[in-house]
């Protein structure tokens, strides 16, 4: 494995893959717009009317509850547009390695009465992606080492990866992604083919793609427009799916069920259209860094594995030596699905690279998520680990667990949100997790780098 990180090339370089063209997608809405239900329904109806779906088996791949998305509205429109046309419809929830959604949670998420999905979606089959069941998957082939080097810009040059996908996707005539686009810590902007990989993929590509992103670092890749190395890897794997691929990509007003925009076409084209809107909608700029951030996490984030978004989407505006407090009294576990993270703890990228023989056999996805919540920093045998920002958990996780995983503990009962909001050195984000904060380019004197860093006398630039 090559361990020298590289900067993602962005829109000017697609790493040998199809970058997508917004002009080829059918679109509606845009930055600052708010689509009403009638507009959304009409757009979906027109888009699917022009798609060749008659007599087809259709697999809809949709997000889980950690993504804000008006799925009842969208799937109701899809249902009406496919009625009498599609031979069969299967809905697969793209969990990746997240927890399976209960029947009650699925009902709220998709808009049906618990125990009676047929009453709302007659003839449809609705399933959680079952990542732990080997029978879930179909083998699509292998991405070889030479191609891997091209896709990742040389970050990975000495290994290949097997590509597996949920069989309902592979065996359908048409696989349709229905999901939002947000700034993302691994791939740049989420959505599109990412709902296939890692959404319904085998563990091999999940681990590899996340580690590629970690080598670049979250602070470097998050909100990067165009094709990043991880997006290239995802696109390459998606091209191996035998089903015809389409996508209904969405830009959602954060924390609401309102759409700013929608795009329909190939996953590459529809994603490119919505990523451009998301870049203008879900990135908020500040003129100068702050000493402290209080990230108030919504209850849809059920463990720190998912609530880490409250760190890495705010990390770029925190000054060197500053602090991010994740405030989530409802969270009681580090990771439900990934117990290894408790053993590994939270560390920066260089901590792992400097001791690679010790960590190389751990799940690479877990190593990646560790870096996402620890942020930028350095490690060397003499000085150990030094991190740019302090990460504090004000959650229901016990103090001894928090400190054991290399984070700072704060009793959530002592958190006074109003008092923090009144503190000029603190920025409070009341609905953390979806909007990315950055420093304004060419901002106020002393604003530092776009990711919050000051000029690197500290030696802590990642």
From TrEMBL:
User: What InterPro entries does the record point to?
Assistant: LarA-like, LarA-like_C, LarA-like_N
Q: Which domain of life is it from?
A: Bacteria
Q: Which residues form the LarA-like N-terminal domain?
A: 54-214
Query: Which stretches does the entry tag as region Disordered?
Result: 1-33, 439-462
Write the protein's name.
Nickel-dependent lactate racemase
Q: Which organism is it from?
A: Microlunatus capsulatus
What does the record give as the organism's lineage?
A: Bacteria, Bacillati, Actinomycetota, Actinomycetes, Propionibacteriales
């Amino acid at each position: 494995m090559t361990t020298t990180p590289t900067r993602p090339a962005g829109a000017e370089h697609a790493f040998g893959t199809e970058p997508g063209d917004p002009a080829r997608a059918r679109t509606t809405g845009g930055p600052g717009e708010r689509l009403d239900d009638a507009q959304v329904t009409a757009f979906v109806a027109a888009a699917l009317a022009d798609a060749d779906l008659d007599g087809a088996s259709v697999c809809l791949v949709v997000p889980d509850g950690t993504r804000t998305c008006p799925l009842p509205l969208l799937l109701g429109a899809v249902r009406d547009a496919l009625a009498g046309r599609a031979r069969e419809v299967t809905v697969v929830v793209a969990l990746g390695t997240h927890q399976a959604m209960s029947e009650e949670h699925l009902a709220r998420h998709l808009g049906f009465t618990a125990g009676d999905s047929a009453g709302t979606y007659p003839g449809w089959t609705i399933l959680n992606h079952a990542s732990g069941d080997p029978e879930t998957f179909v083998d699509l082939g292998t991405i070889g080492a030479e191609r891997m080097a091209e896709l990742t810009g040389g970050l990975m040059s000495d290994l290949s990866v097997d590509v597996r996908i949920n069989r309902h996707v592979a065996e359908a005539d048409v696989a349709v992604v229905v999901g939002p686009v947000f700034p993302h810590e691994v791939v740049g902007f989420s959505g599109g083919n990412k709902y296939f990989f890692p959404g319904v993929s085998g563990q091999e590509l999940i681990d590899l793609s996340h580690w590629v992103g970690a080598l670049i670092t979250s602070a470097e890749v998050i909100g990067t427009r165009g094709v990043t190395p991880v997006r290239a890897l995802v696109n390459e794997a998606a091209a191996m799916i035998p089903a015809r691929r389409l996508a209904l990509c969405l830009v959602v007003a954060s924390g609401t069920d309102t759409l700013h925009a929608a795009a329909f076409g190939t996953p590459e084209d529809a994603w490119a259209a919505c990523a451009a809107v998301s870049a203008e909608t879900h990135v908020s700029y500040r003129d100068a860094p702050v000493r402290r951030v209080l990230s108030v996490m919504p209850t849809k984030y059920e463990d720190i594995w998912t609530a880490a978004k409250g760190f890495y989407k705010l990390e770029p505006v925190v000054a060197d030596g500053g602090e991010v407090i994740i405030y989530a009294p409802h969270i009681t576990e580090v990771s439900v699905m990934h117990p290894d993270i408790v053993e590994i703890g939270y560390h920066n990228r260089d901590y792992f690279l400097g001791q690679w023989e010790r960590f190389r056999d751990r799940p690479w996805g877990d190593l990646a998520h560790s870096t996402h919540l620890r942020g930028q920093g350095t490690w060397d045998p003499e000085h150990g680990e030094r991190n740019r920002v302090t990460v504090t958990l004000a959650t229901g996780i016990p103090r001894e667990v928090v400190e054991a995983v290399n984070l700072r503990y704060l009793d959530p009962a002592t958190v006074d949100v109003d008092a923090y909001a009144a503190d000029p050195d603190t920025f409070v984000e009341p609905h953390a997790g979806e909007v990315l904060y950055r420093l304004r380019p060419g901002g106020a004197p002393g604003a530092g780098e776009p990711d919050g860093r000051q000029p690197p006398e500290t030696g802590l630039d990642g």
